Amino acid sequence: GEDVEQSLFLSVREGDSSVINCTYTDSSSTYLYWYKQEPGAGLQLLTYIFSNMDMKQDQRLTVLLNKKDKHLSLRIADTQTGDSAIYFCAERYGNKLVFGAGTILRVKS
Amino acid sequence: SQTIHQWPATLVQPVGSPLSLECTVEGTSNPNLYWYRQAAGRGLQLLFYSVGIGQISSEVPQNLSASRPQDRQFILSSKKLLLSDSGFYLCAWSIGTLQETQYFGPGTRLLVL
User: Fold this and answer.
1) How far is B95 from chain A (nearest CA, A)?
2) Residue A41, pLDDT score
């Protein structure tokens, strides 16, 4: 079956880089996603990567994919207090998205 | 541009009472629609998805049901709520095939007492 795992918590100082990690199990995944959830709000799509790519960069966000190890990471450069949120990794499995439990990112000023 | 609405934003209901949560999408036609539940401190679990009016697929057996009476309206219901139905319910949409990227609504927080 499908499973997505993430570390639960990450604390960084404002201005530092944040790296949020995720592992998944389905080797046939086509798309992998990163969503951001601010307190009490829905999920905001941040970025996604197709499984034939190793890296994708979008402004302060860099996604790295290691297909061999089934490892996905999201790097946020120059982390700001507004980046504090829960970050969800998700993989597409058939007709549905399978989500990790989310990583709480806390940014200290 | 497309927007997705959910209401109510927050709901407190007694055990055994009925439930109706509504989701509507604007700015697109024939969207795929999804209901997810997020339990406290957990990831999201897909409950239902729909590729068209009257077409509902259920992912997990549960106390809930879904209906799609109109193209851009998706309703989540229950006849009798359980304590375990408490959570954050998120509606999402996508276009094209079910492989397309999903976009989420603001969510409804349900507390069953």
Assistant:
1) 13
2) 82
